[in-house]
Structure formats: structure tokens, C-alpha cells
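Researcher: Excuse me, C-alpha cells okay?
***
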Amino acid sequence: QVKLVESGGGVVQAGDSLVLSCAASGLDFKQYTWGWFRQAPGQEREFVGAIDWTAMNPYMAPSVKGRFTVSRDNAKNTVTLQMNSLEPEDTAVYYCAASTIITRARTQYNFWGQGTQVTVSS
């Protein structure tokens, strides 16, 4: 029973920071690339960022580069999305996901969490 559980979402004001966490169970956490995606109403699910099993190849989407960063803690089976300088355009449901390769393509991710809502007010 593979399970990914996101937490940390909420309602914040523009310019604020927020940290999302994803706790994984039922798989070998260390061997996977861990990614974050988001989906706004009426939009396709888009890639936010990812980190591979070595933690040596961070990969961030241009829309969040310089504001967001992904990290992982293999000992705690946890991946984190640190979000700074939040904008209303960042409002979306955020999902964590696992892949066997480093990629931004959502079809390459094998496991998904249920998502957590992030709302940024202006």
C-alpha cells in the first residue's frame, strides 16, 4: 500500500512563505525521484520542481525558479517544497509524486498524493 500524504497547505497573503511536506510510505523512498506538481481550476496539472535520489540534480520550473525549492530527507521519508514570495498565480492544489527518473512530465510519475490546497490572496 503505497501512500503519499501532503500537508502544509492553507490561505496566505501575497508575499508570504509556506512550506509543504509529503510523507511517503509503502515504498523505498530513497530510490525515487520526488516531484511537486500543481493544478489550478481550469488548468492542466503542471510541473513545479523535483529532486532525484542523489539529491544532486534539483530541477525547478521557470515559473517558480528563485522562489521555490525542493528538498528531501531520506531518513524521514519526507520531501519538502519551500515556497517564498508567493503570488496569486501560485494558487492551486499541490501534489507530490514519485518517479524512477528525473523529469517534468507528469505521465512519468508512478505514485501520487491526494493534494493540498494553497490559496494566495492579493
About this structure: The first strand starts at residue 3 and ends at 7. The chain has a mean pLDDT of 95.
